[in-house]
Amino acid sequence: MTPSNSHFMKRFITLILFFIVCVSAGAQQFNNEWIKHAQTYYKFKVGATGLYRIPKSALDNAGIGNVDVRFFELWRNGKKTLIYPSVPSGPLPSDGFIEFWGEKNDGGPDKELYRNPTYQHSDKLSFFTDTAVYFLSVNTNQSGAFYTARTNDLSGPLPSAEPYFMHKAATYFNAKMNFGFAAVVGQYVYSSSFDKGEFWSSANITPATPLSVNNTNLQVYAGGPDATLRFGVMGDALNSRRIKVSVNNNEVIDTAVDYFNEVLTTVPVPL
After folding, report:
1. What CA–CA distance (Å, rounded) separates 25 from 42?
2. Local confidence band at 1 (pLDDT 50, 70, 90 cut-offs)
């Protein structure tokens, strides 16, 4: 190989590597991959969790009242939502409808904004809005996602009842937005990305103002396993500190949470 050819090969290999890097970078997810651009999507909003009904008249007004119900698709945050049409196939009758379980917006989409996904203590509440956006569409090449009706079979002996089940009682605080980790350069400076300890939180907890949460009617089953307590806490000032957590005046954890450190943990709670 002549020197000129060797020089050409080096440049050629460099170009190939650069092309591979560009292709890899272009393959990232934008969370809009579910959209089929040949379809029309009918947008509406849900601000409270509950059972919702779309009547035939609303579909008629949108010009899709005569569509076979098997081709309806309902989307929320890029995922199909289960629907229940009043007929299993064909167009809806005049008094027909589509029902679905609608949920208000949560913090699931916020996870992508964190520097590290583990920094999100809970995805129950959104930083931006309680209102979720739903999209109804028609896809004749693919059926939607439907609830399936089942008939109870009581002809034979029934299985024994479970002695207990695990129930979750939770409190999601939204008294203030905690800004999370800060760099101290004469004043507190916060990252533009969502950082450690950035979440909706309770009001400040101090020795003079402890936080108390009251969960009642928990229906404790004496023969069951121990309960568990999961909680998260974050320091929001350049101070040293300890936190203590008690259940019914029984201390379950005592640990340091200095400066802008956090604790996100689960501890056992004896019955």
Report:
1. 32
2. very low
b/e code 36-70 from CB counts within 10 Å (16+ = b):
eeeeeebeeebeeeeebebbbebbeeeebbebebb
Pairing state between β 132-138 and 72-76? antiparallel
User: What is the tally of helices (H) and strands (E) in the chain?
Assistant: 2, 15
- CB burial class (10 A; 0-12, 13-18, 19+) of residue 134? buried
pLDDT at 19: 54
**Residue 145 CB neighbour total at 10 angstroms:** 14
If 0-12 CB within 10 Å is exposed, 13-18 middle and 19+ buried, where does residue 122 land?
Answer: middle
Find out whether 189 and 183 touch, Cβ atoms under 8 Å.
Answer: yes
Q: Check whether 35 has a pLDDT greater than 50.
A: yes
Please give the pLDDT value at position 15. 52
Residue 184, CA distances (Å) to 140, 187, 195, 214 in order: 58, 5, 15, 36
| Inter-residue contact 110 to 87 (CB < 8 Å) | no
Kindly state the tokens that stand for 117. 């996904």
Does the pTM of the predicted model rise above 0.70? yes
Tokens of 62: 């949108």
CA atoms 14, 19, 24, 25: torsion sign? positive
Plot region of 70 (φ>0 → left; ψ -120 to 50 → alpha; else → beta) = alpha
Which two tokens mark 258? 């200095």
